Amino acid sequence: MCIAQGMIxxxxxxxxxxxxxxxxxxxxxxxxxxxxxNAYVLALASLxxxxxxxxxxxGRKRFFLIGLAIFTVFSAACALSRDDPQLIVFRALQxxxxxxxxxxxxxxxxxAFPPERRTTAIGIWAGVSGLGFGxxxxxxxxxxxxxxxxxxxxxxxxxxxACFLLTVAAVQESRNPGARRLDPxxxxxxxxGLFLVTFALIETNTHPWGSGYTLSLLGxxxxxxxxxxxxxxxxxxxxxxxxxxxxxxxxxxxxxxxxAYLALAGMFFFVTLYFQNVKGWSALQTGLSWIxxxxxxLLVSPFAGRFVRRFGTSWVSGGGILLGAVGTIGLAQxxxxxxxxxxxxxxxLIGFGYGFAVPAVSSAAMGAVPAAQSGxxxxxxxxxxxxxxxxxxxxxGSISHAIVAxxxxxxxxxxxxxVRTQAASLFPSVAGGEGRAxxxxxxxxAASMAFESFVSGLHVALWVAGAAMVLGxxxxxxxxxxxxxxxxAPVTGxxx
Length: 496
Hints:
Blueprint: H1 2-13, H2 19-26, H3 30-58, H4 60-79, H5 84-112, H6 115-146, H7 151-154, H8 156-170, H9 184-203, H10 212-234, H11 248-278, H12 283-288, H13 291-300, H14 304-311, H15 313-331, H16 344-367, H17 374-412, H18 417-425, H19 427-431, H20 435-442, H21 444-479, H22 483-487
């Protein structure tokens, strides 16, 4: 389960460093380049809830293996793609496989381990999966330097085969013995609603938030989700037991998870652009720079259960999220002239914070879910993470875009009329931190102005991300406290 979750999160980040190589070799347009990332995220976010439900009904091991096979086969198809439409379609199908796997990795762990060892197991799972997320840029940079862009997909094949064989040999089948017939209408409404909302958020990169296009998509998505809730309340055999949300512990854990990954996704995006485009680092250098974040996460998360047993879920979760908030707000102080020494202490805080918080929040959520419904419970929790990350990139990107636009307009006011017109047309490069490209066209002074404009957007975006985490910490302190929260996560002292 650790290998599987690590693969899923690895594919969230490894593709980013390969985009320039893919763009050159396949001749991909900028809009299609974004969809190489978004097709995977969209399929994963919109289908993750049905994935957990189907596993509960038909067998978690069986459905996990089906998802793993789909993921592995279409990883190979991605590597063999000859043009961008093929790659986008295969990335979406890869996301379908990930959606079947993701909720079941956690529910299989819940079934396999007794309560006194469960939080420790979840901590190890969180540590390895977090390593997969953080190692993506490092592994991707190495593979591209040694081979070409297709290697980032080929790497999934041996991992997928090993994971398949281990699952067949070592995982016991489990299902919900009280599972009832499927809920096709609920599945359609939930998947359609999540698809439309996530798609609308992704499209805010090219369409304003207030445009009829964006508002129509958001409205349709929200309407579908409202209809889903109303349908689930009336149907005899609901896909998602709404009674789960009567638990303050479960509801709070999902909100905290969404806010935490909203901030984390935004932080990774902006700081990666900062070091690659403003500081001129290579993809490999940038990936290696994340080690001070990945290492404490990997070291702390297997032992988070000890801290939960001693201090309680709310303090470990809320304190961890608060540490991450301090680190994120610290990164909001980066300036054009800042060095790596200004960043790595913030990475340490974020790594330690998430290392404590992720296992504790996951365990609190799953502790509030009946064992028979662990698949759907895990699906809801994973969906919170994916939707939180999508919302984070969209919202923080939109905020940054507006701040950078205002700063760039002020900077270019002093330029001559014809140069100012050309500078205004270069705004997309400015918003992406590509100051050197701007400077090559209209002079070195413009490069400095472009970098300063980009950093002004980074400042505000990361302050908002930090504020979201402070809110998440407050919810954790309040919503995850009490006897049920504390009792959900008893652990042994032995991380093994």
